[in-house]
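Q: How do we represent a protein-ligand complex in a form that can be generated token by token?
A: Start from the inputs.
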Amino acid sequence: MRMYDIIRHKRDGMALSPKEIAFFIRGFTDGSIPDYQASALLMAIFLRGMNPEETAILTDCMAKSGDIVDLSSIPGIKVDKHSTGGVGDKTSLIIGPIVAACNVPVAKMSGRGLGHTGGTVDKLESIPGLRTAVDRVEFFRIVKEAGIAIIGQSGNIAPADKMLYALRDVTGTVEHLSLIASSIMSKKLAAGSDAILLDVKTGSGAFMKTLEDSIALAQAMVDIGNRNNRDTVALITDMDTPLGHAIGNSLEVIEAVETLQGKGPVDLTAVCLELAANMLVLAQQGSLEECRHLARQAIAGGEAFQRLVAMAKAQGGDVSVLKDTERFPKAPMAVCLKAGRDGYLRHINTEACGIASVVLGAGRARKEDEIDHSAGIILRKKPGEQVWEGEILAQLHTAREEQLPEAMELLREAIEVGNAPPAPVPMLYARVTADGVEVL
Ligand code: URA
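Then emit the structure tokens for the protein with uracil bound:
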């Protein structure tokens, strides 16, 4: 078999055979296929597409290019959850403990912030002392003891994806449905769970800006999961507005604690309960209605919050900050953005809020940048709310005085106040399963 022929097949619009796909992934990963040939194939895939079978095989080969985590020593059905990323998306910190409180083990590997979107690992590390670099033996021990562990991606997970993503990034081939879906799902397949819940975000702060594109991505990923024998379901949830009020690492942990204590924002609570219920269904804990009840009970009875505390303690964190969130280190400056007029908050450009929080220090402009865990934004008003001239729209927390004007300007531009309230936007759009799309 020659890479040259594989490129020509795809260039001419043919479907690649499983052997051709496996040859490409093996050769690219071991270095025998050079970047220029891999780039040519990526562009041919970008232009000609891949059918669902090719996409599922590509994903499987990428997943098997490195370690496959074996979770079989942890009893029960293990369900993983993946979010396509957003701003203020602290759902993993809430859903994981809810699911664990319902006696379903959570053994989760999460990522760091990327661009304008935050990452669970950075958020967790705002709890002083908490370790996310944990080896497999300790990972399994924590899951067995606390019922839940959330750690950084360890080992050699899907190296083919890592190499291909770097190449896609510089060859204009990132934004292709099959390539995005296979990239995300290869890491999920390698992480070893029995079932997968996908939270596909849609709107101005999401990777996919339109509902149509979000549903198409969800369908592609659900299809890949099910073809690879993982029960996979996706929810399409709103990311046209930041989720909850807090953006930034420790600010988001505080909001997650409040939500687990039943005092969280309505939008965040609703999305988390629905995601948790769907995870519980995948873990075969009952019907969706029964699992919604279980999820609500886990918060109301305090067990979900206790699971967060148990996990943080097992991972070396100082849990006094969770029990009394006033103890979290605070940014030295908190500056308010005020409304310039009376009216209604019509829209928040979510991507711009994410960028503003990075400017304040909550994210990284370059890979090697240090994060300031206490930096970020608290949105005091959300779309649909009435505002009065001089009222606080948002609070900016930072240690970087010199960055404040830029962040303030970004946020001022991002928050639109107008004469009339906007049309209400749903939090949950659709549920995508192997059987089709159910509009919620
Ligand atoms: N996230 C991924 O992991 N891969 C993509 O291709 C896009 C987003």
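The pocket of uracil is lined by residues 165, 179-180, 183-184 (CB under 6 Å). The radius of gyration is 22 Å.
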